[in-house]
Design brief:
alpha+beta; six-stranded antiparallel sheet; about 35% helix; elongated
């Protein structure tokens, strides 16, 4: 009913406007609308207003140009924000998934402090993989780069090696890749690539580390026991933050970027403005 009334009102307005225009003399119309049609015939009126409503080629090109400029200014930021949200979501999923696996393992194998860590490559096989249904071993390894400014491409992330001959790599049904290490910061450590073998394969961008905490028998993000400022080298001190800190600079370290996940968690599961995201990948030199 409302739609019918609206239609009738629009038609009524049109008829009033048309009647007024048709009563105008040629001079009053400025000679812009031809009188080739008899009074009362709406065709002349319609053709006139259809011509007035059309856009010129110049106007169309101007609009297209403006749209292009706006798109060029906004699309890069939109893409960067999308990639950041994607990274944070991947980290949250990994944190939840591995937390549940450790919880189930503790229920079956006892407190983490009682686990046998003597043979490193046996740890994931006994305590982690059985609690991640559908997880398989990768047949080939790949390089995980540290968070570094200048790109020492000759180095691999050998301390948390992605070489399957020293530490097996595992792929989860969610497309993530991880390995395990008895890291020298004192914590049994999982290194997770949240988007699998896909680039950029950089710690702090798509690679993150998780601690299996012996004290609480839970999974925590590596570096979570340190302050945010110490991880970002903005003040304060925490063990190993000088090597695992979340900063892009020219001081190369195997573990650079190892504690970046803790910064994301401390910031409320978001990538803040002072996070060393860079361009979200390798710098030109690194490429």
């Amino acid at each position: 009913m409302v739609r019918l009334l609206t239609t009738l009102q629009c038609d009524k307005f049109y008829e009033i406007l048309r009647a007024k225009a048709l009563r105008m003399t040629r001079d009053e119309r400025g000679g812009k609308m031809s009188n080739v049609y008899p009074r009362g015939d709406r065709r002349g009126f319609d053709n006139y207003f259809m011509k007035k409503a059309a856009f010129t080629l110049v106007e169309v090109l101007i609009v297209i140009g403006v749209i292009g400029i706006v798109a060029a200014m906004t699309l890069p930021n939109m893409y960067t924000n999308f990639k950041k949200r994607q990274t944070v979501t991947g980290l949250q999923v990994a944190y939840s998934m591995f937390s549940q696996a450790i919880k189930q393992s503790v229920a079956e194998n006892g407190e983490v402090g009682t686990w046998d860590f003597s043979v490193e490559k046996n740890v994931p096989e006994k305590y982690i993989v059985p609690y991640l249904a559908g997880t398989t071993k990768l047949k080939t390894g790949y390089n995980m780069r540290t968070l570094y400014q200048h790109g020492q491409t000759g180095y691999t992330y050998s301390d948390w090696s992605w070489n399957i001959n020293t530490r097996p790599l595992y792929s989860t049904p969610k497309g993530m890749v991880f390995n395990y290490a008895n890291a020298n910061d004192g914590y049994p450590t999982l290194v997770v690539d949240v988007n699998g073998v896909k680039s950029p394969n950089i710690m702090g961008i798509d690679g993150f580390t998780l601690w299996i905490d012996k004290e609480s028998s839970t999974l925590v993000l590596a570096g979570s026991k340190c302050s945010r400022n110490s991880i970002l080298l903005k003040g304060g001190n925490c063990k190993y933050t000088t090597t695992r800190h979340c900063v892009r600079d020219s001081h190369w370290q195997y573990y650079r970027g190892g504690y970046c996940g803790a910064v994301i968690q401390k910031d409320g599961w978001k990538i803040s403005d002072d996070y060393p995201w860079g361009n979200g990948g390798l710098t030109p030199v690194e490429k």
